[in-house]
Write a structure and sequence with these properties.
single chain; 257 residues; alpha/beta; 9 strands; oxidoreductase; 5-amino-6-(5-phosphoribosylamino)uracil reductase activity; NADP; RibDG_C
């Protein structure tokens, strides 16, 4: 037997228990007593590493993935996405039912979390669902150079915020988190796309990644879940792996200590 196999203890992951809704929610709770933003990424990938099918991540999802997508939104203070994801996935505001709203109120959260869009140029369509199918004005975190023109174009449809750091032509991830923290939005959920996840990963600001593995092959030139020039080597600890009858795997990895 090769030494690399002989020296590693492998475990067969198989169904050992069926978990109810409350237990599943426990798997995705944010840490208690947060004093800073905790950034959770939620992404999906095919088994051959594609982040999209037919250009959209939603085309990879199944019933379980959509259920966890909603559960994670219910737990978050704010959902962070990039402008390209808003356009491609045709984003609207978060829609929650009475039970979820009541649970959020009991936890001291707003009934509905806002969508925060990270966009260097602020080029978002005035008529997009994001601005008209929502109960909460979205936050547009853009560059200093684009902030004024974005405010003029969107008017009262959104709160436009300068999230630049040293470079007035770009959005700084750390500055964006500081601005969210100042609003009490500490439980951050980012749904991508790959460029936004790459921004947080490259700046070493991603605290955890919830990754769904879809049992499909997509081939082609689909992007991976992270893109961008920033490179890190951040150890992550597996928190859990869930499975469903459709063959999906739902993993959660948390930044190592």
């Amino acid at each position: 037997m090769p030494e690399t196999v002989a020296g590693t203890q492998f475990t067969v992951l198989d169904a050992v228990e069926v978990v109810d809704d409350e237990r599943v929610a426990d798997f995705y709770r944010y840490p208690d007593d947060l004093a800073r933003c905790w950034v959770r990424g939620n992404m999906i990938t095919s088994v051959d590493g594609g982040a999209t099918a037919d250009g959209k991540s939603g085309a990879l999802g199944g019933d379980g993935d959509r259920a966890l997508f909603g559960l994670m939104r219910e737990a978050a203070d704010v959902i962070v996405v990039g402008a390209s994801t808003v356009r491609v996935e045709n984003y609207s505001g978060v829609q929650l039912g009475p039970a979820a709203r009541s649970a959020r109120q009991q936890r001291g959260q707003a009934e509905v979390p806002p969508i925060a869009v990270l966009t260097r140029g602020g080029r978002l369509d005035h008529d997009a669902k994001l601005f008209h199918r929502t109960e909460v004005r979205p936050l547009i975190l853009t560059s200093a150079d684009a902030a004024r023109s974005t405010r003029d174009r969107l008017g009262g449809l959104a709160e436009v915020i300068d999230a630049s750091g040293a470079d007035p032509d770009s959005v700084d991830a750390a500055r964006a988190l500081t601005l969210l923290a100042e609003r009490g939005l500490l439980r951050v959920l980012t749904e991508g796309g790959p460029g936004i996840l790459g921004m947080f990963t490259g700046a070493d600001l991603l605290d955890e990644l919830c990754l769904t593995l879809a049992p499909v092959l997509v081939g082609g030139d689909a992007k991976r879940i992270v893109t961008g020039p920033g490179q890190v080597h951040t150890p992550m600890t597996r928190s859990h792996v869930l499975a469903d009858g459709q063959g999906y795997l739902y993993t959660r990895y948390v930044r190592g200590n």
